[in-house]
Write a structure and sequence with these properties.
alpha/beta; Rossmann fold; 2 domains; six-stranded mixed sheet; four-stranded antiparallel sheet; 10 helices; 10 strands; 36% helix; globular
């Protein structure tokens, strides 16, 4: 759902972000509506991960604001934002490798103390049967593809309204990349709003509704995925700072 007077479920308005004196994000505007899958494309050092950190509250904007359901959340902690439905699958999975698969999944639900998790486990196992087979195994002994399944399952245990994904194709074999994006599409089809940060433009645009292209901290293109794939400027903007 986009436009039509609806309030975005997550948005950045005029966001500027700094690391010390370095000006990383420059007047960034992004709107994500409930039920959508939106991708953010860009090369290395374009500001993609900084965008995610700003959304999650790891970084505070030096100007502009982050909004969730129309409410300015600049003053909210990361935990408050997670509690309101914002969850991320980080780059390189970042599992607790010495802990079991089950323990990693439980961590995803740490803000839901006292709630039954049975239905959530079943949802994860239905989507990732391999995860159920590996519950007692140490996460660090899994293959890269299996670790990605656990990382996505862990995020789903938080019952997210918006799932942020940082470079989900990184480190995966090509055949696993295609499978991974198919799973992301399934998650979105199940009603979870998804925001994917990705360098693999063709793969991301093939499943997303809309996309933004970030170059040296500025949004240089934004359109439907179909229009971006047909836009001759898209490649130049996407590769501009690689």
């Amino acid at each position: 759902m986009t436009g039509n007077g609806a309030t975005p479920i997550l948005s950045l308005k005029g966001v500027n972000t700094h690391y010390g004196a370095a000006h990383i994000l420059k007047d960034v505007d992004i709107d994500i509506y409930s039920g959508e899958m939106v991708c953010l494309l860009g090369g290395n050092a374009s500001g993609k991960t900084t965008t995610l950190k700003t959304m999650l509250g790891y970084l505070k904007p030096s100007a502009g604001a982050v909004y969730m359901d129309g409410e300015n959340v600049n003053g909210w902690s990361t935990a408050q934002r997670v509690g309101h439905g914002l969850t991320m699958v980080p780059e390189n999975r970042r599992l607790f490798k010495r802990m079991t698969v089950r323990e990693n999944l439980e961590i995803g639900a740490y803000l839901r103390e006292g709630q039954t998790l049975d239905d959530d486990y079943e949802r994860v196992f239905e989507m990732f049967p391999r995860v159920k087979e590996r519950l007692t195994q140490k996460a660090g002994t899994l293959s890269g593809g299996e670790q990605q399944m656990v990382a996505m399952g862990r995020a789903l245990m938080a019952q997210p309204k918006v799932l942020l994904m940082d470079e989900p194709s990184m480190g995966l074999a090509p055949v696993l990349v295609a499978q991974n994006f198919e799973i992301i599409k399934q998650i979105n089809d199940a009603g979870v709003t998804v925001f994917v940060v990705e360098q693999n433009a063709n793969m991301a645009l093939s499943i997303a509704d809309r996309g933004y292209v970030l170059q040296t901290g500025k949004i240089v293109l934004s359109d439907t995925s179909q229009a971006l794939m047909a836009n001759p400027q898209m490649r130049a903007a996407y590769l501009g700072d690689v």
